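BUG: 3D viewer hangs when loading the predicted structure for this chain

Environment: internal workstation, default settings.
Expected: structure renders.
Actual: progress bar stalls at 90%.

Input used:
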Amino acid sequence: MAGSRVRVVAALGTAQTLAWASSYYLPALLARPMAAELGVAEPTVFAAFSVALVVSALVGPHSGRRIDRWGGRPVLMATSGLFALGLAAMALASGPIGLFAAWLVMGVAMGSGLYEAAFASLVRLYGQEARGAITGITLIAGFASTVGWPLTAALEHAFGWRGACWAWAGLHLVLGLPLNAWLPRALPTTAAAATDTTTGASGKPPALTAALLAWVFAVSWFISTAMAAHLPRLLSAVGAAPTAVILVSALVGPAQVAGRLLEFGLLRHLHPLHSARAAALMHPLGAALLAVLGAPAVAAFALLHGAGNGILTIAKGTLPLALFGSQGYGQRQGLLVLPARLAQALSPWLFGLLLAGLGTRVLWFSAALALSALAALLLIRVPARTLAETVETSP
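Structure tokens produced before the viewer hung:
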């Protein structure tokens, strides 16, 4: 059984690496050549990407409901085809209409094929015991940018941006589709059982807790996306040298993986609410150091922000499971992250405006946002049943 679970995690983690690398991380390297050839401004490409994020937010609950009923295998297999279709449409685009149409398809694929769908698929297979598997796939897919950016750059250099899109589309068919098809079949459930989200693990209506979690996820995704888009510019604004900006920005990825390893090791015996609270404190601590000390604190900021973001990524999957249970998980997960996807779509534009207007004082804004997420997490109580289960499973 343990070996079978390892194979599932390895297959799904690899498929997720492919999905993230060919969607979320694609515009960073291809936006400029796309814009130049299609005759549009570079921000137009990112606007199309933002539209895809909005579409993914709207699709998420529907995709989650289908995973609740049928399991992740058929949904993720269909998503491989959607990713391939969207990337092929992108490669064939001849203007802004074709570009936006391609990203609309990509939005549907992202809403039904990224982390939330993978988490729901694992919960459908393993129920309350899915926490370790969720951590496992985030450990593997945490290298999506590390793998995706160099590969996209090499493909674009060799074949142009259209060739890069065709190559990623082909990889979804020859690699992603078989990997997702390798997932075990889940027994179908009735529609009523799959969509019953009226009670949580504690037996009480989860509306307030769900609202608090939705705020936490929206804040954490807003900050992580803002840092991904503007970190080099922010570090330059505090006086870091150009070489230091590049080196320190590269620390965020390894720090995220380190945070996930910490969750997989020491923190796995704690209720995920406690690890999420610790993680929510890391960005404001790093931001305060950077705001006060300036350039000497850039490495500390990158490490703290990255580690906190890595743990919070796992919390997006494990917290709803621990607080509300596995029944109806997929649909509930889609609803919980819907505000987060919308915040993610607005983040690069809004944070860019704030950075331009406030300069380095924008760090106090991001720190205050993160502290509001921490406050929300502190208002959530650990259900007595899940707390007992955590204690019983500790060594």
